[in-house]
Design a protein that fits this description.
The structure holds 3 protein chains of 3 kinds. The radius of gyration of chain A is 19 Å and the shape is elongated. Chain A has helices spanning about 20-30, 55-65, 120-130, and strands spanning about 35-40, 45-50, 70-75, 80-90, 95-100, 105-110, 130-135. In chain A, strands 1-2-5-4-3 form a 5-stranded mixed β-sheet, covered by helices on one side. Chain A has 3 helices and 7 strands; from the N terminus they run αββαββββαβ. The longest helix of chain B has 29 residues, at about 90-115. Chain B has 2 domains: about 5-40 and about 330-390, no CATH class; about 45-320, Cytochrome-c3 Hydrogenase, chain B (Orthogonal Bundle), CATH 1.10.645.10. Helix content of chain B is about 50%, strand content about 15%. Chain B has helices spanning about 45-50, 55-60, 70-85, 90-115, 120-140, 165-190, 190-195, 205-210, 215-220, 225-230, 250-275, 325-335, 345-350, 355-360, 375-390; strands spanning about 5-10, 20-25, 30-35, 150, 155, 290-300, 300-310, 315-320, 360-365, 370. Chain B has a 5-stranded antiparallel β-sheet. A 3-stranded antiparallel β-sheet of chain B has the order 6-7-8. By secondary structure, chain C is of the alpha/beta class. Classes of the chains: A alpha/beta, B alpha+beta, C alpha/beta. Chains A and B meet through strand 3, strand 4 and helix 3 of A and helix 10, helix 11, strand 6, strand 7 and strand 8 of B.
């Protein structure tokens, strides 16, 4: 690497319609595996996969160019818990793939062999929501200290800290 | 020789972050590196669900005191996206100016801390003295040296006035000279080169496979920069390059940050000189319609992600924060493979760990069934002694 | 302010131990600024990377997370008398913005006794120096009274 390159032109603007194009491509390439693919905003697409086939779905999307997993988020939606896989697609698009599991039996196969960094995100989601990731090698708590009571998942909507009062804000 | 586990920390006086590393070694060679980040976990995501957006902003800004503007801005623009509101152009430029100033302060901070890790205290003092120039500019604009509080939902709370501009530009001029000087120092300083060249190798393919972000990825020739790929704030209007290095080692990461320093200074000067007129705040509703949004930002350490979900109220239903340091951890683990213990401070420091963002080394002599603790200080000193003997430094 | 500091330092060079109990790092980097050229407190012999066994003053940043609670207590116990604690920033006082969060105790004095509080989020380096000077003044006063008891409230056993 040599001298600092002088600033050049600003980046090219996004081509309109890229989100719809990606959504269509995904539905066409991965039928029965990925559904409900649609644009949700500028460079943002959402889609759904059946939980038992999440590995095939993630693998299929990776083959379509989603080579980077930007993150994973857990959600408590009442009867079901959801995990969102935020995949970085070409052209700056984030494709959030969601999989729902029943609250009473929250389990998903791990994708940490497809994206090693997912191992960290799955540990975090387990800490906060109690979702189990089958096949995950390292299942140690990530965020919660060793004295944290087992079975207490703080980001679930029905979880409240013991003896917590209302914190008054100024 | 059987594997040993070596605890380090949690005191890390240079980083000031309460992290615990667990190093598993085979003789002198590192086999694995585990990170315990529970020291810093506070429960911010849960708290955001019970605080109005504007109050959440104060909390989110303090996820990390080093990249506080990154978190606050990423959250604010995410809520704005959900509200269908755009901050005015002048506000976007001011947010971007502060973002790049933050990158400068963060990279200078890092350069100093990394230098300190290898006993190069002069460079630590130089960089942190220069960093005071950035602190002064940030204080002039925002009123605070750290945790600037520039953002509101809908725009920025303070203006960059014409009266401020000459002082800012003067400071930037000084910084450009210093930053350029540092790009030379890193290539010429023997101590630095020995401790960084060929150390902590991470090939381009592995950087991609492990989802490395920020200067760690770019130091392995991966041209991933959210400012270019998913333009936000004013980045689609301001000229800049994505800076990469083919070195694929710690030196590559150092090189990328040093050159980003120069570039960010130039970007700031450009923004001050070309600041568009206009309002600072857009009118925003009290509540955000129900929806979900992934807000991304190129923080000094790399891609920062906030997933936001709203349900028609003035609070988030869910805030999920993914920080770049956590993402880069697998890359550190890979990069340190087969290295000697003496290299740990440098390889870990090279990812510029913001462990507060991420929420924290034990050496256990399994053979003798004893736990001995090394403080980070001991490890840093060990590293310096090791290389002093090895290379006659 | 620096003259006062020099006077105190000439009398006794206090060793300071820093402990981050789960802070956002703003306080920590402002403390670190103290040893850098603009503020340069090291020439006064004030700042040292001590182990608990050599420290006179423990400076604690952060709201004290549940994880750090035990360690904080242990470090305090390891310090020899006379020992002093400075709680940094809003977090150190009562948890700051993190008060009430589920992984946070919320204030250093919930875990160990505190002698001086420095307000701010974060406190500026000059405010930190001011706080350290206050701590030295308190130490000096206590020494004249033969310890801390003169300023502590009597706890009446019930």
């Amino acid at each position: 690497m040599t001298a600092v390159p002088a600033p050049t032109a600003p980046p090219a603007p996004t081509v309109p319609g890229v989100e719809d194009a990606l959504a269509s491509q995904v539905l066409a390439s991965l039928p029965g595996l990925v559904s409900e693919a649609r644009r949700t905003g500028v460079r943002r697409v959402t889609a759904r996969a059946p939980p038992e086939r999440i590995r095939d779905a993630v693998s299929g999307l990776k083959a379509l160019g989603c080579r980077h997993l930007s993150g994973m988020s857990g959600l408590d939606l009442g009867e079901r818990l959801e995990v969102l896989y935020h995949l970085s697609a070409p052209r700056g698009i984030v494709l959030s793939l969601r999989a729902a599991v029943p609250r009473t039996a929250p389990r998903l196969p791990t994708v940490s062999d497809l994206f090693p960094v997912a191992g960290i995100y799955e540990r975090e989601i387990h800490d906060l929501f109690g979702i189990e990731f089958e096949g995950l090698k390292d299942t140690r708590p990530l965020l919660l200290y060793e004295g944290w009571p087992k079975g207490q998942y703080p980001l679930r909507k029905d979880w409240k800290p013991a003896g917590a009062g209302e914190v008054k804000h100024a | 020789m059987p594997e040993m586990e070596l605890p380090i920390g949690p005191q890390h006086p240079a980083l000031k972050e309460p992290v615990n590393f667990r190093v598993i070694v085979d003789g002198e060679r590192i086999v694995r590196l585990d990170l315990d980040i529970s020291y810093n976990h506070r429960g911010i995501e849960k708290a955001a669900e019970t605080r109005e957006f504007s109050k959440s902003l104060y909390l989110i800004e303090r996820i990390c005191g080093i990249c506080s503007h990154a978190h606050a801005t990423n959250f604010a623009k995410g809520i704005e996206a959900l509200m269908g509101v755009e901050a005015p152009r002048r506000a976007q430029w001011i947010r971007t100016l502060v973002a790049e100033l933050e990158r400068i302060h963060s990279h200078l901070l890092w350069l100093g801390v990394a230098a300190h890790e290898i006993g190069y205290n002069t460079l630590f003092m130089y960089t942190w003295r220069d960093r005071e120039t950035v602190q002064d500019i940030l204080e002039l604009i925002s009123g605070n040296r750290v945790n600037y509080g520039m953002n509101a939902i809908g725009g920025v709370r303070r203006d960059v006035t014409d009266a401020m501009k000459p002082r800012i530009l003067e400071g930037l001029q000084r910084l450009e000279a210093r930053a350029t000087y540092y790009t030379h120092v890193i290539r010429e300083e023997e101590t630095l080169l020995i401790r960084t060249r060929g150390v902590g190798r991470l090939s381009t393919d592995r950087a991609v496979a492990l989802d490395a972000v920020g200067p760690v990825a770019r130091g392995s020739n991966v041209g991933f920069d959210v400012r270019r790929d998913d333009p936000h704030l004013a980045y689609s209007e301001i000229p800049f390059d994505v800076i990469t290095s083919p070195a694929c080692d710690v030196f590559g990461r150092v090189e990328v940050r040093a050159h980003e320093l120069v570039q960010s200074v130039r970007m700031c000067a450009h923004m001050v000189e070309n600041l568009p007129p206009g309002e600072l705040m857009a009118k925003v509703p009290r509540a955000a319609p129900a929806g979900e949004y992934v807000s991304r930002y190129e923080a000094p350490r790399g891609e920062l992600v906030h997933f936001l979900r709203t349900r028609g109220t003035d609070k988030v239903d869910r805030l999920s924060v993914r920080t770049p340091t956590l993402t880069n951890w697998p890359s550190v683990v890979e990069a340190i493979q087969g290295h000697v213990i003496a290299d740990i401070p440098v390889v870990v420091a090279a990812i510029d760990p913001c462990l507060s963002c991420t929420s924290r080394m034990t050496f256990v002599d399994v053979d003798a069934k004893r736990t001995s603790s090394l403080t980070w200080d001991d490890l840093v000193e060990y590293g310096m002694r090791y290389y002093a003997e090895k290379e006659g430094l | 302010m620096f003259e006062r500091l020099v006077r105190w330092a000439r009398g006794k060079s206090p060793w300071i131990l820093l402990f981050n109990s789960g802070a956002c790092n703003a306080c920590d980097i402002e403390v670190l600024s103290l040893v850098t050229p603009r503020f340069d407190v090291e020439r006064l012999g004030i700042l040292a990377k001590g182990t608990p066994r050599h420290a006179d003053i423990l400076v604690v940043t952060g709201p004290v997370t549940l994880k750090q609670q035990e360690r904080l207590k242990r470090i305090y116990d390891q310090m020899p008398e006379p020992k002093y604690v400075i709680a940094m920033g809003s977090c150190g006082s009562q948890g700051g913005v993190f008060k009430g969060l589920y992984h946070v105790v919320g204030g250093v004095d919930k875990v160990i006794p505190v002698d001086v509080w420095i307000g701010g989020c974060p406190p500026r380096p000059d405010e930190i120096i001011d706080g350290v000077v206050k701590a030295l003044q308190v130490m000096d006063e206590d020494a004249k009274h033969g310890g801390k008891r003169w300023r502590q409230k009597e706890v009446v056993a019930t």
